[in-house]
Automatic annotation (TrEMBL):
Keywords: Lyase, Metal-binding, Queuosine biosynthesis, Zinc. It catalyses: 7,8-dihydroneopterin 3'-triphosphate + H2O = 6-carboxy-5,6,7,8-tetrahydropterin + triphosphate + acetaldehyde + 2 H(+). It comes from Proteinivorax hydrogeniformans. GO terms for biological process: tRNA queuosine(34) biosynthetic process. The active site is at C23 (proton acceptor), H71 (charge relay system), E131 (charge relay system). It comes from the Bacteria. This is 6-carboxy-5,6,7,8-tetrahydropterin synthase. Binds 1 zinc ion per subunit. Belongs to the PTPS family. QueD subfamily. Its EC number is 4.-.-.-. The lineage of its organism: Bacteria, Bacillati, Bacillota, Clostridia, Eubacteriales. Pathway: Purine metabolism; 7-cyano-7-deazaguanine biosynthesis. GO terms for molecular function: 6-carboxytetrahydropterin synthase activity; metal ion binding. It holds the Pfam family PTPS.
Amino acid sequence: MFILKAEVQFDLAHYLSNYEGKCSNIHGHRYRLIAKVKGEDVKKEGQLRGMVEDFGTIKKALKEIEDYFDHKLIIEDDEIGQDFIKRMKNSPQPFEILTVPYRPTAEEMSRHIYHMLKDKGFDVHEVELFETPTNSCIYTEADND
Ligand SMILES: Nc1nc2c(c(=O)[nH]1)N=C([C@H](O)[C@H](O)COP(=O)(O)OP(=O)(O)OP(=O)(O)O)CN2
Ligand SMILES: [Zn+2]
């Protein structure tokens, strides 16, 4: 089996609702996203001969994910999140807020990104998301060996 690896990074603000400690405040990370796409064999002919997938195609999809998250604030769609968004609507500054149906941990975000890539048609092996230079989560699915 072949496993291709590509990486992007993005800056994103978040907070963890009902978390006790410094992460209950809004703060930011430079996230590092490493995606692995698998293939049993390389293509036999045409433009992709000798390749599982063009790195450029993977990079383009990762860039779209980078743009989706980059320089935004991600907020869980819970009571605190909805209240926050309501208050921000009165602000003269049109902040870009991403509302998600999960607590934005490295675990939930890596699972979300895994499915974003799958929905784009990639045979995803795993997604690793670094929240800090030393902490990361790897998301994969059981049938994925
Ligand atoms: N399993 C998880 N644990 C934590 C997550 C997470 O996504 N999954 N997230 C956080 C916070 O977002 C936090 O910002 C990370 O905090 P921390 O590990 O404290 O990282 P720092 O680099 O800020 O640590 P210092 O030791 O203070 O430098 C918490 N836990
Ligand atoms: Zn954090």
